[in-house]
Amino acid sequence: MASLSGCARGGGAQSSPGAAGKDASVSPSESPELDQRFSRSRRLTTRRQFLAVYDGGVRQGSSHLALFGLPNSAGCSRLGITVPKKVGKAARRNRIKRVLREVFRRNRASIAGSLDLVVNAHPQAGQRTARELEVEFLDLIRRIQRPDAHGPRTSRRRKS
User: What value does the mean pLDDT of the chain take?
Assistant: First the structure.
């Protein structure tokens, strides 16, 4: 199983060896507070991680996206994205993934707690603008974060 400590360190930012113990300024890429990268520690990468969110998380849906959220112990929120071939050709699917990753990256500081999030795009998502997808995604994140959203849930285990 992968180490979950990457989130707590600020996404794997490293300090320079010469700056230890000095009053040297730290560049934005080295400061955990200012680190805006979408590092591997901020992603859901395995089928097992996706299934855990589907099985134990809560679902909020809209006309173009479905968002599943599950609290985690990683110390930061992580994102996984699925876009089916029904959305369109690879260029369109990749565009949707880029837009959703960028929205998550820019707004992850406003996500309360640490959640594993999985976004599923519906076929109609390919016809939405980046701004429309952003508004919809942020609305779903707000709905997932509601206090009543993480109540008891029955298992929805999918067949492998």
Answer: 78
